[in-house]
Amino acid sequence: MAVQINPSILSADFARLAAEAEAVKGADWLHVDVMDNHFVPNLTLGVPIVEALGRATDTPLDCHLMIEDPDRWAPQYVEAGAGSVTFHAEAAAAPVKLAREIRAKGARASMALKPATPIEPYEDLLPELDMLLIMTVEPGFGGQAFLDIMLPKIRRTRELISRHGLEMWLQVDGGVSAETIERCAEAGADVFVAGSAVYGTDDPAAAVRSLRAQAESATAGAPWACAH
């Protein structure tokens, strides 16, 4: 599967979002962190900003909803222009119904798991999803240190995806950088959210290219990729 790099605008300059989106031309998606100050202790942005960002860039939007009641709110982000919408397993009341609604509205449906949430109880839901997001930090703030203890969970998730013969993506988010991306790729991730590792550099587009090259190199030698 192709490596994808999704810069997180949580680490961008919110006063210059259109320019910041342009600065990562060549990225596969723009990762948009939506936080409501309830599900996570931070408040970021909502539907109007997603709509505006969609008008300002041709790069598709990957919206990660760290919010309560995503069953109610997630469909609005599809209508706002998101090409992929991720809801949290811990917050969704009816995840299968919600995933189907997101897909029916024309977006990719994705589900996220906090670090302490195991993948195994959700195995039967995987065919309903286009992507699964493994959080490699506690959600809520950018710039956190990568949690190495999530690597076995990434491997187990990749094994489940392979066992069921699914063509779904496996995304990691949190502390992804030049120091950690290869380990994530070797473990089974193929979609990488990077915030400060991209926007904290002098040349965000070059950072995207460099991270992609690292992940592609690690994936090429990974047993899970060779067996796929």
Automatic annotation (TrEMBL):
UniProt cofactor note: Binds 1 divalent metal cation per subunit.
Entry annotation: catalytic residues: D33 (proton acceptor), D173 (proton donor)
EC number: 5.1.3.1
Matching Gene3D superfamilies: Aldolase class I (3.20.20.70)
HAMAP family, per database record: RPE (MF_02227)
Task of the protein: Catalyzes the reversible epimerization of D-ribulose 5-phosphate to D-xylulose 5-phosphate.
Protein known as: Ribulose-phosphate 3-epimerase
Enzyme class: isomerase
Catalytic activity: D-ribulose 5-phosphate = D-xylulose 5-phosphate
Keyword check for Isomerase: yes
Record PANTHER family: RIBULOSE-5-PHOSPHATE-3-EPIMERASE
Family: Belongs to the ribulose-phosphate 3-epimerase family.
Pfam family, one: Ribul_P_3_epim
Domain of life: Bacteria
Keywords of the record: Carbohydrate metabolism, Isomerase, Metal-binding
